[in-house]
Amino acid sequence: MTKFPRAIRRLALVLPAALLAPQLLLAQEPAAPTPQHLTPEGGTPWIYEGSDVPRDAEWIFGTLPNGVRYAVRKNGVPPDQVSVRVRVDAGSLYEEESERGYAHLLEHLLFRESKYLGPAEAIPTWQRLGATFGSDTNAETSPTQTVFKLDLPNIDSAKLAESMKLLSGMVRSPVLSDANVKAEVPIVMAEKRERAGAAERAGNASREVLFAGQRLADRVPIGTDASLQAATGASVGAFYRRWYRPENTVVVAAGDIDPMQLAAEIEKWFGDWKGQGPKTPAPDFGDPVAPAGADPANPVGEVGVVVEPDLPRSFSYAVMRPWRPVQDTIAYNEGLLRDALAQALINRRLESRARAGGSYLYAQVAQDDVSRSADMTFVNFAPLTGDWKAALDDVRGVIADALATPPSQEEIDRELAEFEIVFKSQVEQQRVLPGPRLADDIVNAVDIREAVAAPDTVLKVFNSMRQTVTPEKVLEHTRALFSGAVIRAAYVTPEAGEASEAAIRDALREDVAADGNARLAAQAISFDDLPPVGPPGEITAQGPIGVLDIEQVDFANGVKAILWANDAEPGRVAVKVRFGAGYRAIEPDDAVYANLGYAALIGSGIGELDQEQLDLLSTGRKFGFDFQVGDGAFTFFAQTREQDLEEQLYLFAAKLAMPGWDPKPVVRAKAAGKLAYESYSANPGGILQRDLEYLLSNDDPRFRTPTPEMFDAATPEGFRQVWEPLLKQGPVEVLVFGEFDKDATIETLRRTFGALAPRDAPPEAVLDRASDFPPAGETVVRRHRGDANQAAAVIAWPTGGGVEELRESRRLEVLASVFNNRLMEAMREHAGASYAPVVRSDWPSDVKDGGRIAAMAQLRPEDVPVFFAEAEKIAKDLATTPVGEDEYNRVVEPLRQYVSRASTGNLFWLYQLEDATVEPRRIALLRYLLSDYTQTTPSELQVLAQKYFGARDGWRLAVIPEGQQLATTVPEGNATGR
Q1: Are the C-beta atoms of 595 and 705 separated by less than 8 Å?
Q2: Which pTM was predicted?
Q3: Per the database record, which ranges form the Peptidase M16 N-terminal domain (predicted)?
Q4: Which of 58, 209, 320, 481 is the most exposed place for a label (fewest CB within 10 A)?
C-alpha cells in the first residue's frame, strides 16, 4: 500500500530528522509466529460468504478455531500508523431489563482495569505509546455492538506486540470488581447527565413511538439511573460472560506494517481465548407490526406528539418493514443504487420547493436499516410555523408525485452524473484512503451483516447498473421504498395543544394530490456561456517560498497565490481563498448580517445565476463552496479535483467580482436562525454556544448571537448593503494544494483572480479594531431552562494573537494539554463531577489579540465550585512547580506523533501557510514547528504558566438552571487537596 515517500522526504527539509525519530523504547517481544488460520488460497473469506461481490484483494482474512474472525491489510495512510478495531457483538439491545446500560458501562470498565493494565492505567499507557486519548484511543457502544478503537502512531514490531497484548487483556480479562464498578458508575452517570435534556427526551420519546413493541424502543446505550446504580461486579460480569466471547468478536487491523505480522499478533493474543459457559443466542429484536385493523394500503400505526418548549418543530414519519439479513450480492447492490437514486430525485425536489419559499425549512427522505430492527424509509421535515398540516401536505404532495409519475430522463441523468463523480473520486483516491476509515468500514459491514467492496468494484457495479435505469424502474423502486408493514410518526413541537395524535393520524391517512411543481425543468447551462471575470491579469512575481516545492505567484491587481502541486494525495485539490478583514470589518450593528452570511452568502448566487442554476452547473463535478468569517479574513474553501479546478476557481473569483443577491436564501436563513434561537436555552451547552464568544470578547456586539428580533429587523436589502462592499474589500490570497498541473493552474488564476478589479482598502479603523478580554471578578452567571441537575462552567485567561509570538502559541498548546490531562483526572476520577472537561488554547494568528486559554466542563450545579477550585489549583501548580518527566512525555509524545502524521497531508501545510503572503514570517517560523511542540521544556512551560496564569485571576462563567442560585462552596467530600 502506498505511503507518502515524497511528502516525508520534503518534510525532512523543514523539520529536523532527529525530531521525527521514535522516542519510546519498549522491551522487545519475541517475534510473532507465522499466522496459521488465514483463509486458504481459493477459499471464501468469512465476510464474503454467500456473496458474489468481488473480493477486495487488499484485505486478508482469517478465522481462529475459537471463533474469532479477523481482517488485516497493509495501509500507509498516515505513515507509520496501525489502526486496530476490536468489535464485540454486544450492544444495548442485548441487555435484559435489569441490565440497561451495562454494554456501555462495560466499555468504560475495560479501560479502567484489566489483565495487563492496573487501575486507571489505560489512558496514560496509551499516551506513552503516542496515542491521544479520545481521538487515537476510544470506544463506542451502539444498540448492536461495542467497538474498541486504537490508532497507534510510530509503529514498530515491539509497539504492535505490546498494544495487541494490552487490547487482548482489556477484552478478554477485564477486572470487574465491585470497587471498579463503584468507581466507574459515577463517570457514566456524569456522561448520562451531560447528554440529558430536551433533545434527549424528544429523541427517546420519538424512538418509543417509532419502535413500539421492539427492544429498540427503550434500549438506549446510556441505560437508566436505576440499573446503573444497582450494578455490581457480579451483575456486570454476568453480562460480560454472556456476550464477550470469541465467536462474537471481530478484530480488524490496517496499517503501515506487514499484514502477516498483524495477523500473527491477533492469532497470538486472541487465539487461546475461551468463552465461559454455553453460547447464548442473540435476543430477538422484534419486528414492526401494524395495529389490528390498519388499512393494508396505508397502514398508519402509532403516532406521538412530543412537547418541548425549547426545541424547534420537527416532524418525522417512517414507512417500516421488518429487517432481515440479506445475501449481499451484486444484484442486491444494484437495487440499493436504484433506491438511492429514487431518494436523491425526491430530495432534490423537496429542497427546490424549500428554496422557493414554502411551509417547511427543510425536508428529506432517507432509507436506513436501523440497528437490525427495521428497514425504514424516513421522511423528516421542519415546519416553519405551527401549521404542521400544511407542511406535511406539501412534503407528501412532492412524494405523491414521485409515486404517481416516472421521473424524466433528464432528472435521472443528472443524479447518475452526481453518483458517478462520487464513485470516480473514490477510485482516484483509494490509494490514500486512511487506515482508520478502512478499519471502520469492515466493522460497519460486520454490524449490518454485509460484505465490503473496493472502490473500483463499486464503480463497475454502478456502470453496469446505470444502463438498466429507466424512468419506470425508478418508479418501481420509489413505490417499494414507500410500501411497508406500518407507518409511524412523531412530531416535536414547542407548543402544547398544537397537534394531537388523532389529527396527525388522520392527516397521514388522507390522500394528497400529487404536486409536480417541484420537478426541476431541464435547463442547459454551461461554464462556456458565463461571462469572464475580467481581462486576464499580469503576473508581477513568481518564485519558490523556500519551503518544499511551494511557490508564490503575485498578480498586478494585488492578488497573491501560494501553490503546491504534489502527488501525495491523488485526486484531491484543496483550495482556500482568504479576502477582506473578517470580523474586524463587521460593524457592531451588523452582527445579524455576519450570522446570515454563513447560510445565505453563497446561496444568494453569482451574477444572474441563482442557487438552483449553480447546482445545475455543478452536475458531474466535484465542487465545494464553504464560507467562514474568521478573525482577520473571510474565507472560501473547497475540496475539488484537477479536472474541476478551473471551474472551481472561476466560481470563487466570480463570487467576488459579480455576486448575486437572490433574496430567497436570506429569507430562509432568517427563518432558520429564529427557529434555532430558542433551543439555545434548552441546556448549558446551548447557552455556551450562544453566549461564550460574546462574553469572552467583553460583550463585543460583533460576536453576539442574533435574537429573533434582530432577525426580524434584517432584510435582503440590508444584507446586500453590508456584504457588497465587504466582497470588494481587502487583500486576496489564494492557496491551491494538491494534485494539479501548476502551469495550467497559474494560467487559470490569471484569468480568474488575476482578472479581478483592484480591491478597496479596508479603513484604518477596521484594521486597528481590537477585541477586549473581559475583566476578572465576580463569576458571570447565565441560566438555562433545561434539567435541574445540569450546569456548565468556564474559566479563561487572556493570551495574545498574531504572528510575532506564533512560537509561543504552539508552546501554549503543550501547556493546555498538560492542563487538560490534569483537569480530566481531577473531575472524572477524584470529584466524579464531569465526564469530559476540556482545556483549549486559541491563538488567532491573523490578528494581534483575542487569544485565550479556556477550561470548560458540563457538570452538576453543586459541582461548579469544584470545577473552579480544581482549575485554579491546577493553574497555580503549573505556575509554581515544573511538570514531571512522565507527565511531560505523556503530552509531548502524542503531540509529536500528531504533527508527524498530519504533516503528510496537504491541509496541514495549507493551514500553516495561510496568510503567509501578508505575513511572510509564517514561512520562517515553520522550521521551529515540531521543536516548539516537542522540545518546550518543563521549566519553559512553568514560565508560560507564570506569565498567563500568575499575572491575573481567571475570568469565570457559570451556566446554571433557572430558579437556582450559584453555589459558592465545595461540597463535602470533594475537597481539592490531594
Answers
A1: yes
A2: 0.94
A3: 78-191
A4: 58
Of the chain, the percentage scoring pLDDT greater than 90 comes to 90
Whole-number pLDDT of residue 134? 80
707-724 b/e (C-beta count within 10 Å ≥ 16 → b) = eeebbeebebeebbebbe
Q: What are phi and psi of 715, to 5 degrees?
A: -135, 155
- The three-class DSSP label of residue 382 is strand
Average pLDDT over residues 886-910: 94
385 vs 210: CA distance, rounded Å: 24
* DSSP type of residue 256: S
Angstrom distance (rounded) from CA 439 to CA 256: 13
Q: Is 165 exposed, middle or buried (CB count within 10 Å of its CB: 0-12, 13-18, 19+)? A: middle
Residues 6+ apart with CB under 8 A from 422: none
Calculate ∠ Cα 598-573-428, nearest 5°: 120
SS3 58: coil
Alpha helices in 405-432 (DSSP H): 409-428
DSSP letter for each residue of 325-361:
-----HHHHHHHHHHHHHHHHHHHHHHHHHHT--SEE
Q: Where in the chain is the domain with CATH 3.30.830.10?
A: 5-270, 300-518, 528-767, 780-961
Backbone angles phi, psi at 429, to 5 degrees: -100, 5
Residue 830: pLDDT above 80? no
pLDDT digits (tens, 9 = 90+) for 917-944: 999 999 999 999 999 999 999 999 999 9
At CA 595, angle to CA 591 and CA 600, rounded to 5?
130
> Among 3.50.50.60, 3.90.25.10, 3.30.830.10, 3.40.50.150, what is the CATH number of 5-270?
3.30.830.10
d(C-alpha 973, C-alpha 862), whole Å: 12
780-961 domain in CATH 3.40.50.410?
no
Determine the Cα–Cα distance for residues 117 and 170; give it in Å rounded to an integer.
Answer: 8
CA distances from 381 to 318, 358, 470, 494 (A): 12, 12, 29, 15
Q: Which residues contact 282 (CB under 8 A, 6 or more apart)?
A: 89, 94
| Residue 42: partners with Cβ closer than 8 Å, 6 or more residues away | none
- CB neighbour list of residue 729: distance below 8 Å, 6 or more residues apart: 579, 580, 581, 585, 759, 760, 761, 762
Task: For residue range 727-786, list pLDDT tens digits in order.
Answer: 999 999 999 999 999 999 999 999 999 999 999 999 888 888 888 999 999 999 999 999
What whole-number distance in Å separates Cα of residue 173 and Cα of residue 166? 10
Q: What is the mean pLDDT of the chain?
A: 93
